[in-house]
Amino acid sequence: MFFRMGSNREREQPLIEEFYQALDNLKLVRRQLDFSDLEFIDTTIYNIGAAESRLAAVLRQARKEGVSAW
Predict the structure, then answer these.
(1) Tens-digit pLDDT profile for residues 7-65
(2) Which residues pair with 68 in a beta bridge?
(3) Which of 7, 25, 22 is CA-nearest to residue 61?
(4) Distance in angstroms (rounded) separating the CA atoms of residues 24 and 37
(5) Which pTM value belongs to this model?
């Protein structure tokens, strides 16, 4: 995925890094679901929800700052 960088590159770079970290974290917790013990499945599902919320927040912030994928 590529992002168009405006005149505020220094400010946008950490946001882009945060996006990729949030995306990687979401992928990780989704994979953990396959290996979770039944006693810990609720925690794993909670972690997936938290990761999805974090990614959504980063995307909202990117929209607010005008960072775009094209």
Answers:
(1) 555 556 889 999 999 999 999 999 999 999 999 999 999 999 999 999 999 999 999 99
(2) 4
(3) 22
(4) 22
(5) 0.77
Handedness of CA 27, 50, 65, 11 (dihedral sign): negative
Q: Is 3 left (phi over 0), alpha (psi -120 to 50) or beta?
A: beta
Task: Return the axis-axis angle of helices 9-32 and 41-65, rounded to nearest 10°.
Answer: 160
- Count CB atoms within 10 A of the CB of residue 2: 8
Would the CA dihedral through 43, 28, 20, 62 be positive or negative? negative
Return the number of other C-beta atoms located less than 10 Å from residue 54's C-beta.
16
What's the CA angle centered on 5, arms 56 and 27, to 5 degrees? 35
